[in-house]
Amino acid sequence: xxxxxxxxxxxxxxxxxxxxxxxxxxxxxxxxxxxxxxxxxxxxxxxxxxxxxxxxxxxxxxxxxxxxxxxxxxxxxxxxxxxxxxxxxxxxxxxxxxxxxxxxxxxxxxxxxxxxxxxxxxxxxxxxxxxxxxxxxxxxxxxxxxxxxxxxxxxxxxxxxxxxxxxxxxxxxxxxxxxxxxxxxxxxxxxxxxxxxxxxxxxxxxxxxxxxxxxxxxxxxxxxxxxxxxxxxxxxxxxxxxxxxxxxxxxxxxxxxxxxxxxxxxxxxxxxxxxxxxxxxxxxxxxxxxxxxxxxxxxxxxxxxxxxxxxxxxxxxxxxxxxxxxxxxxxxxxxxxxxxxxxxxxxxxxxxxxxxxxxxxxxxxxxxxxxxxxxxxxxxxxxxxxxxxxxxxxxxxxxxxxxxxxxxxxxxxxxxxxxxxxxxxxxxxxxxxxxxxxxxxxxxxxxxxxxxxxxxxxxxxxxxxxxxxxxx
Length: 472
Description:
Blueprint: H1 15-26, H2 28-65, E1 73-77, E2 83-87, E3 94-102, E4 108-110, E5 124-134, E6 141-144, E7 150-154, H3 160-169, E8 174-181, E9 184-191, E10 199-207, E11 226-229, E12 234-238, E13 241-245, E14 249-254, E15 257-261, E16 269-275, H4 277-302, E17 304-305, E18 310-311, H5 318-331, E19 349-351, E20 357-359, H6 361-367, H7 371-379, H8 389-401, H9 406-471
Helix pairs in contact: 1-9, 2-4, 2-8, 2-9, 4-5, 5-8
C-alpha cells in the first residue's frame, strides 16, 4: 500500500521552504544563461536588420553599376488626352508627331427579336470562327483565320439564355449576352479582341428543321442578325506616315517607344523622348541613403559611452567592426576609370564625422553635366584600380549576401550559440530537479527517524511518570 509523505511533519521544520531555497540556489546559473540567450537573440535580430539594409544597398548600387541605370529617358506627349507614351531606357532622344485617325474596335452583333421570350430556340449545331471581314464599302466577305472552328451543340429544350451560356463556356473568342426589349429577346455577341483579324462569324451547321437557311428554329440566330460594328485596327500617322495596330497600343513602330491612342486627334500630338538626368540623381541619392542607414545601425550597435561606461550590443564584435570597415573602405576607394573623377568626394559625396555620406547638391549637379565621366566613376567594370565605385559595392554586397557569405555564417554561429545555451539551461534544470528529489528523500528519511525518536521519547516519559507514582 502506498504511503503519503509530507516532509517536515516529524521534524517540525519548514522543509518546503528550505528545499525551495536550496533548489533556487541550484538554478541561479539560469539567470546568466537566460540573459545570454536574450542577448544572442537580439544580436540575431540586429544582424537580420543589417542584412536587410545591405540588400537595399545592393539594389541601389545595381542601378548605378548597370548600363540601364544610366540610360533612363523621359517620354512626354503634348496632349495625353489623345496620345499616351512611354519609352525604355537607352532610347535615343527624338521627337515626332502622331495623329490618330481611328481607334481599334471589336466586332459586335445582335439577332432579330426572338419569340416567345424564354422559349426553346431549336436544336442543332452552331459554329463560331475567328477571322477577317473584307469588302467595300461594307465588309461582306468573311475569311476564317488559322484557328480551329468551335462547334456548339444546342439541344431542343435550350433557351436563348442557355445558348449564351454555352457560347461563353466554349471559350471561342466571343462573349454572349441576352437583351430583352419590347420586341422580344436578342442574342448579343461581342468579340474579345480588337483588330481586323479578330472578327467572328456565327453559322449554323445543322438545324433540327433541316433548313439552316430559313428564319426558323436555330437558324434564327444567324438569319436576320445585324453586325453593328466590325473589328478594325487602330490607324494613325507618324510624321504623316500611316501605321496600324491591332490594339490602341503602338509598340513596334518607333524603336524603344510605345505610344497609345486614346481618342481620335484633331491636331498633331508631339511625342518627345529625352535623357532623364533626374533618374540618375535619384539613383545616387538612393545609394547614399542605403549606405547611411547601414552605417547608422552599425554605429549605434558598436558604440561605447564613456559617461555611462556602457557599450552597444555589438561593441567589440570583430565581425561587425570588419563589416563596417569594409563598407567604409569601398566608399572611400579610388577609381581611375574616369579622367575627371576619382573619388566620391570629387562629385560632391563626402564622408562626415561618424561615417555617413552627405551630398553637396550643387557639386553633384555640376558633375552631372559630365554624365559620361560620372557614369565611369560609378559603373566602370575594368579590372584593377579602374573598377567603378558602384561595381565595388556590388561585389561587396553580393559576397556578403551569398548563401555562404558573411550573414549566413554569422547567423549560423549565433544560432549554434543559442542551441548550446538552451542545452546548458536544460542541464541546469535537470540538476536542480535531481537535487530537489534528493533533498526531499533525505528530509523524508529524517522525518521518519525523528517521528520514531519522538514516539520513544513519549513512551519513556510515560514510564518514568508511572514509576514515580508507584514509588511514592
